[in-house]
């Protein structure tokens, strides 16, 4: 008999004998590499790992579907007004928070008003995104079911951006913000009933407007991918987030399921050179790093051709993807030549790269390959493993911190949560108080994109922005991120759109 631990407690999977454990018919059990450090308060961002913690119990105004389209969720309609800085958004009627309070336009206004405060910006990624991306400067209730949002400048992207702001019960938050740590208060299909760093427990909310067929859910912290696989094989887990590529065949051979879908995101390592005394201030050094990387080996040997490189801060499914931008060739001689031209004939370093392995397929192996390839041309890279909580602290430092806490390179993907490259571009632009880079030409293009409402006219500007950003070598591009999810054979109705699972459709086979 072989035992493994989930959530810090021995569960006793009979893996060695192949005997499956009892599978509760009333509980969906999801194994996640990590749970959201922000606990039950939906202000820690809209991507992994917080999306897995918050999406069961919270809604957003709109949603991005699997085709990258903006579709209604809490908002049923949205329309820009004549001056193009005001948007009127109609709120779905009959929606209640888990404590029974109605979700009204006033509730939305109160939460958006809070996200615009300096207090929120100093603490939460969501509030920073709200100001940098949405640029909402005023909110006004027009009717009980209609809110008017005013932006600082014309912002044609606002409907897409409304997909990343979770909607908690702002009245309850104002009265007792600490209560959200362990028991949030949203409108999603599941009600959060207990938060522990090792396990989050949910129950289907009886008053939810989107119903969950499975009565209970557990989000379990299972850091090791091998343990998540063991949980699927033994029947102790129904969903295993982040299956590694080398375990796909094992899961399938045992009769279970593997769900693979590309996100509209690129994993990458950012060069941090703004206002810093570092060799990476010289574009030739950044370009040398890009020539040093053997992408073909990564795609073939580590990714098994599941996903590829695009060479830009976008995937082929992103709006405005530029087919003329290509990944750099693998050319170590060119890399050394550029270092010499930049004044570093003997190479650079040692320097550190902050990484959080275990979040993307083969990412640990990829980071090791990056360090190996950089060292091969004289760029003495040292990987520094940090936690997601540490990453958040560095990404959202105190207001008094004027320079980024990250080293010369750090993990930060082109996280296009809205399936539009502008999502990542704005977050990594001159608008961020703690900048990694700031290029005025990029900012002019960002503002031109926001001001253009005609998609046919907007698309070529997006393509130009992607070209300029790639030419600036702002990041070391890694593969498109694939979400590889292991599913126990009893799971039915699973779907994944932008890391948001189909909780209203997931059921179990009889």
Q: How would you describe the overall organization of this protein?
A:
The chain has 16 helices and 22 strands. The chain has 510 residues and is of the alpha+beta class. The protein is globular and about 65 Å long.
Please give a handful of descriptors for the protein shown:
510 residues; alpha+beta; D-Maltodextrin-Binding Protein, domain 2; Dipeptide-binding Protein, domain 1; Dipeptide-binding Protein, domain 3; 4-stranded antiparallel β-sheet
- Average pLDDT: 89
- State the end-to-end CA separation: 28 Å
Overall helicity: 25-40%
The total beta strand count reads: 22
Strand order of the main beta sheet, please? 10-11-12-3-13-18-14-17-15-16
Find the structural class using helix and strand composition: alpha+beta
Rough outline? globular
Helical segment count: 16
| CATH fold-level name of the largest domain | Dipeptide-binding Protein, domain 3
Determine and state the CATH class of the largest domain.
Alpha Beta
Instruction: Indicate the low-confidence ranges by residue numbers.
Output: 1-18
Any idea what the radius of gyration is?
A: 23 Å
Could you give a short account of the major beta sheet? Answer: 10 strands, mixed
């Amino acid at each position: 008999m072989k035992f493994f631990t989930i959530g810090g407690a021995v569960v006793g999977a009979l893996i060695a004998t192949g005997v499956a454990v009892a599978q509760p018919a009333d509980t969906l059990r999801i194994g996640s590499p990590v749970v959201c450090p922000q606990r039950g308060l939906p202000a820690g961002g809209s991507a992994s790992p917080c999306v897995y913690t918050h999406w069961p119990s919270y809604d957003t105004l709109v949603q991005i579907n699997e085709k990258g389209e903006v579709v209604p969720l809490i908002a049923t309609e949205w329309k820009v007004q004549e001056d193009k800085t005001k948007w009127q958004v109609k709120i779905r009627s009959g929606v209640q928070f888990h404590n029974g309070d109605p979700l009204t336009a006033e509730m939305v206004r109160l939460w958006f008003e809070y996200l615009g405060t300096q207090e929120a910006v100093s603490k939460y990624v969501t509030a920073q995104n709200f100001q940098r991306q949405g640029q909402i400067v005023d909110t006004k209730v027009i009717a009980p079911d209609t809110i008017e949002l005013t932006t600082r400048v014309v912002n044609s992207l606002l409907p897409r951006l409304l997909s990343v702001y979770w909607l908690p019960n702002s009245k309850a938050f104002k009265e007792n913000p600490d209560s959200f740590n362990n028991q949030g208060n949203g409108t999603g299909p599941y009600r959060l009933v207990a938060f522990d760093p090792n396990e989050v427990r949910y129950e289907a909310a009886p008053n939810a407007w989107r119903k969950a067929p499975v009565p209970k859910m557990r989000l379990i912290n299972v850091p090791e991918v091998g343990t998540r696989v063991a949980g699927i094989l033994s029947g102790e887990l129904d969903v295993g987030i982040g299956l590694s590529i080398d375990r796909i065949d094992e899961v399938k051979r045992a009769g279970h399921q593997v769900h693979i879908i590309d996100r509209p995101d690129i994993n990458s390592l950012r060069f941090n050179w703004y206002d810093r005394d570092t060799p990476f201030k010289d574009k030739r050094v950044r370009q040398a790093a890009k020539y040093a990387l053997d992408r073909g080996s990564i795609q073939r040997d580590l990714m098994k051709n599941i996903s590829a490189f695009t060479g830009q801060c976008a995937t082929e499914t992103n709006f405005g993807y530029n087919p003329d931008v290509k990944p750099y060739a693998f050319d170590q001689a060119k890399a050394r030549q550029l270092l010499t031209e930049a004044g570093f004939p003997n190479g650079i370093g040692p320097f550190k790269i902050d990484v959080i392995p275990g979040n993307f397929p083969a990412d640990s192996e990829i980071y090791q390959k990056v360090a190996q390839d950089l060292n091969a041309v004289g760029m003495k890279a040292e990987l520094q493993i940090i936690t997601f909580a540490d990453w958040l602290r560095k990404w959202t430092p105190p207001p008094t911190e004027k320079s980024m806490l990250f080293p010369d390179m750090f993990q930060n993907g082109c996280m296009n949560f809205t399936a539009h490259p502008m999502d990542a571009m704005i977050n990594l632009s001159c608008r961020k108080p703690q900048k990694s880079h700031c290029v005025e030409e990029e900012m002019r293009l960002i503002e031109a994109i926001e001001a253009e409402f005609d998609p046919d006219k907007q698309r070529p500007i997006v393509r130009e922005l992607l070209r300029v950003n790639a030419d600036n070598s702002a990041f070391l591009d890694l593969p498109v991120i694939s979400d590889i999810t292991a599913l126990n054979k009893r799971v039915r109705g699973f779907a994944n759109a932008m890391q948001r699972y189909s909780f209203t459709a997931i059921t179990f086979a009889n």
